[in-house]
Specification:
Chain lengths: 275, 321
C-alpha cells in the first residue's frame, strides 16, 4: 500500500510536468525579447524578461480582428448548436418517435466525418451562396459538427433527470411543451452548460475550415490567423510573438478549465461508458 | 437543484401510471409529431453541411474541373480515381496517416491508462490534477503545434540542450530537416494534445471495475500484473474500445499539426493534407473531390473495421441502448 502511494505520487508529478511543461514553455518564450529569439537561445527561461511581445501583439490589428472573429463565431455557433441539440436530446431521451435510432446513427457518423473531405464542396457551395469568407460561413459548419457531441452529452444528462416532475406537470394540465419549458429546462441547465463548454472548445479550436473558408481578417479566426503569422522570413518565424499570441488565446481556455473542470470531465465521459 | 428534487418527491402521490403503459393513440401520435419536430432542426443542419456537400463531391469527382479554368470542365468518369490510385504520392500519404494513427493511438493508450490509474488512486489535489489534464485537451491544436515546433527548434528549442546526452542528439540536430525526426515531432504534439481525452474515457471505465472483484483476486493471490490483465482490462473493454475508436478516427484525420509544423515537407504529408492541398492550393476541385470521397470511404472502412474487429457495441457503449 505504501509503495502504491509512492507510485501514485510520482505519477502525479509526472502528469503535471507532462501536461504543463509545454504551456510553461510558451509562457517563458513569450517573455523573451525579440533580440534573444532572433539570435537563438537554447535556454528555457528568458535571459531578460520583457513585455515587448505583449505590447506588439495587442497592438497588432490582424490579431485583434482574429480574436474578435474567434469569440464571435465560437459563441454564436455554441449558442445555436446547444439550442438545437437541447431540443433533439430532449426528444431522444424522452419521447417515443419513429426514426430515433436513425438520428443517433447520423450523429455518430457525423462525429467521425473527415472534415477535410468537405473543404472542396463547401468551398464551391459557399462561393455560390456568398457565404465564403463570412461569419455564417463558419458558424453553420461549426454547428453541424458540434451537434453530435452536444446531443450525446445532453441526452446522457437528460436521462438522469427525474421525469416524474414532468408527468406531474402534465397531470396538472400542462402540455408536453409547457412541461418541457417550465420544468425540465431549469433542471437540465447544468447539462446544457457542460455541452456548451465542449462545443465552445471545438469551435475555438477548429482549423481546417477556418483556413479554407476564409480569405481575409474579416472572418479569419485565431488558429487560422496564427498559421499565417509567420512573418517575412519563414525560416526564422517571430517565435516570441507567436508564443505570446498562443498564450493570449490559451488564457480563456485555462479560465474555463479552472472554473468548470468538474463539469467538463462529467460531460466528456457522460454516456461514454455504460458497459 | 436538490431542493427541486425534494419538492418533486412531495408531489409523488399525484403521479399517474407508468409511462407508456396506456398511452392513448392520439397522445402517441402527438408525441411522435413533437419528437420529429424537435429533432428536425438538428438533423437538417447536420445533413446540410455533410450529406449534401458529399453528394456534390461525388458529382464533381467525375469531372476534370479546375477553378482557374472553369470552362474546361470535362466529364472524365472514374478518371480522377484511377489517377489518384495510380499515384505513389497518394499511397505514401496514406501510409504516413496510418502510421501516425497506429503509433499515436498505441502510445496514448499506454500513457492514458497510466494517467487514469494515477487519477483513480489519487486522494489529494484532485482539482489540480484535473485542471492540468484538461489544459492540453482544451488548448488549440495549432498552439500545441507551435509549442512543440519551438521545443524542437534548432535555434530556440530546449530539446537539443536537455537531451544532448543522447548519442544521436547534438546542439544542431535539425528535427524538421529529415523525415523521421519530423514525424516524431508531429506525433509528440498529437500525443500531448489528445492523451487527456483518452485518459478521461479510460478513467470512466476504470471506475466501473468492481472493487470487490479486485479484492477477491488479491485474496486469491493474484499478482499485480495478473489483476491488471485478467480483471481490470477485460472489465474495461467497452471503455477501451470506445476510446480507441474515437481517437483512431480522429488521428486518421490529422491535419493541424502537420500544417503548422512542416507544411508537409520531408514527406510528412497526411491524407487530409493532400486533399486540402489539391482543393485549396491547387484549386483542383475535380481531383480534390475524388480525394474527399476516398478519404470519406477510408474513414467509413476504418470505423467498420474497428467496430467489427473489436465487436464494439456503440449503442450500448454510448448508453443509447
Amino acid at each position: 500500500m505504501k509503495k502504491n502511494n509512492l507510485g501514485t505520487g510520482v505519477g502525479f508529478v509526472l502528469i503535471l510536468v507532462w501536461c504543463l511543461l509545454p504551456v510553461a514553455w510558451i509562457i517563458s518564450l513569450s517573455f523573451k525579447s525579440p533580440e534573444e529569439t532572433a539570435a537563438g537561445s537554447d535556454q528555457f527561461l528568458p535571459k531578460e524578461a520583457t513585455l515587448q511581445n505583449y505590447r506588439d501583439i495587442l497592438d497588432n490589428p490582424d490579431f485583434l480582428d482574429a480574436l474578435r472573429n474567434s469569440f464571435g463565431i465560437a459563441l454564436i455557433a455554441t449558442f445555436l448548436s446547444v439550442v438545437f441539440a437541447t431540443l433533439a436530446a430532449y426528444a431522444i431521451a424522452r419521447l417515443e418517435f419513429r426514426g430515433k435510432k436513425a438520428v443517433l446513427s447520423l450523429a455518430l457518423a457525423i462525429a467521425m466525418f473527415p472534415v477535410v473531405a468537405l473543404v472542396g464542396p463547401l468551398f464551391d457551395m459557399w462561393r455560390t451562396f456568398g457565404l465564403f469568407n463570412t461569419w455564417p460561413g463558419l458558424i453553420i459548419p461549426y454547428m453541424s459538427f458540434t451537434l453530435p457531441l452536444a446531443i450525446w452529452t445532453l441526452a446522457a444528462f437528460f436521462r438522469e433527470i427525474p421525469w416524474e416532475l414532468e408527468q406531474a406537470a402534465q397531470v396538472d394540465g400542462a402540455t408536453s411543451w409547457q412541461a418541457f419549458r417550465k420544468v425540465i429546462v431549469p433542471l437540465a441547465a447544468p447539462g446544457v452548460f457542460t455541452a456548451a463548454i465542449l462545443t465552445f472548445f471545438f469551435a475555438w479550436n477548429e482549423f481546417v475550415l477556418a483556413i479554407s473558408l476564409t480569405s481575409t481578417t474579416g472572418s479569419r479566426t485565431v488558429p487560422a490567423q496564427l498559421s499565417y503569422f509567420v512573418g517575412p522570413d519563414p525560416f526564422n518565424p517571430p517565435y516570441g510573438q507567436l508564443a505570446t499570441a498562443s498564450v493570449v488565446v490559451t488564457i480563456p481556455i485555462i479560465i474555463i478549465v479552472l472554473i468548470f473542470q468538474r463539469k467538463i470531465v462529467a460531460g466528456l465521459t457522460s454516456g461514454a461508458v455504460k458497459g | 437543484m436538490s431542493t427541486t428534487v425534494a419538492t418533486s418527491a412531495a408531489q409523488e402521490p399525484r403521479r399517474p401510471d407508468k409511462p407508456g403503459k396506456a398511452p392513448a393513440t392520439a397522445r402517441a401520435i402527438s408525441e411522435n409529431r413533437l419528437g420529429l419536430r424537435l429533432v428536425a432542426p438538428a438533423v437538417i443542419l447536420m445533413l446540410l453541411v455533410t450529406a449534401w456537400p458529399m453528394i456534390q463531391a461525388l458529382y464533381l469527382s467525375m469531372f476534370r474541373y479546375r477553378l482557374t479554368a472553369p470552362d474546361d470542365k470535362e466529364f472524365v468518369g472514374l478518371g480522377n480515381y484511377t489517377t489518384i490510385l495510380g499515384d505513389s504520392l497518394f499511397w505514401r500519404d496514406t501510409f504516413n496517416t496510418v502510421l501516425i494513427m497506429v503509433i499515436t493511438v498505441a502510445i496514448e493508450l499506454v500513457i492514458g491508462f497510466a494517467f487514469a490509474m494515477v487519477m483513480h488512486r489519487i486522494i489529494f489535489a484532485r482539482g489540480l490534477m484535473r485542471t492540468a489534464i484538461l489544459i492540453p485537451y482544451g488548448i488549440i491544436t495549432v498552439v500545441s503545434a507551435f509549442a512543440w515546433q519551438f521545443t524542437f527548434s534548432v535555434n530556440n528549442g530546449w530539446v537539443n540542450g536537455w537531451f544532448a546526452w543522447l548519442p544521436w542528439i547534438g546542439p544542431d540536430t535539425n528535427w524538421f530537416g529529415d523525415h523521421w525526426p519530423a514525424m516524431f515531432a508531429i506525433m509528440v504534439s498529437e500525443i500531448w494534445k489528445t492523451t487527456p481525452f483518452m485518459s478521461l474515457l479510460l478513467l470512466a471505465g476504470l471506475s466501473q471495475v468492481s472493487e470487490d472483484m479486485l479484492e477477491a483476486a488479491k485474496v486469491d493471490g493474484a499478482t499485480w500484473w495478473q489483476r491488471l490483465f485478467k480483471v481490470i482490462l477485460p472489465n474495461m473493454r467497452a471503455a477501451i474500445m470506445v476510446a480507441v475508436l474515437f481517437r483512431a478516427l480522429d488521428a486518421f484525420r490529422i491535419f493541424d499539426n502537420i500544417f503548422v509544423m512542416t507544411r508537409g515537407a520531408q514527406n510528412t504529408e497526411s491524407s487530409s493534407f493532400l486533399t486540402y492541398r489539391q482543393v485549396i492550393e491547387q484549386l483542383q476541385l475535380g481531383l480534390g473531390s475524388a480525394l474527399s470521397v476516398l478519404l470519406f470511404l477510408s474513414v467509413l472502412l476504418l470505423a467498420w473495421l474497428i467496430v467489427k474487429l473489436f465487436r464494439v457495441d456503440l449503442a450500448q457503449a454510448r448508453g443509447e441502448g
